[in-house]
Amino acid sequence: MFAFPPIIDVKIDQPEAEISIDRDRVADLGLNLQQVGADLASMVGGNYVNRFNIAGRSYKVIPQIQRENRLTAAQLKDVYVSGTDGNLVPLSTIATVESRTVPRSINRFQ
């Protein structure tokens, strides 16, 4: 019998940022946690919300902050979310951003 080494094709090189929201701080400031989540989703999520027509062509509306303002995890601290009475609250006031490196993909057989 021949013993072959296992084929490992895992590449751990994908950057990832996790935003942890302090729910107690959100409540202390009188913010709506659902609105905070909706604000973050619309700024960095990339989901389209609607379509519009220009000259007979249909285009998707995808709300996002500009690419150069969301390239690193540290830049997410400069994002503002909706507060009470129309005021804006910096994300760094209610959340922490943790950066790490994760596997790009984990391939499995069957």
**Main beta-sheet annotation:** 2 strands, antiparallel
Order of helices and strands: EHHEEEEHE
Mean pLDDT: 85
Which stretches are low in confidence, meaning pLDDT under 50 for 5 or more residues running? none
Write down how many β-strands occur, each being a DSSP E stretch of 2 or more residues: 6
CATH class: Alpha Beta
Distance between the termini: 25 Å
Cα radius of gyration in angstroms: 20 Å
Strand portion, in percent? Answer: 25-35%
- The CATH topology annotation reads as Multidrug efflux transporter AcrB TolC docking domain, DN and DC subdomains
Question: CATH superfamily, please?
Answer: Multidrug efflux transporter AcrB TolC docking domain, DN and DC subdomains
How many structurally independent domains?
1
Q: What is the overall shape? A: flat
- Helical content, roughly? 10-25%
What structural class should be given to the helix and strand makeup? alpha+beta
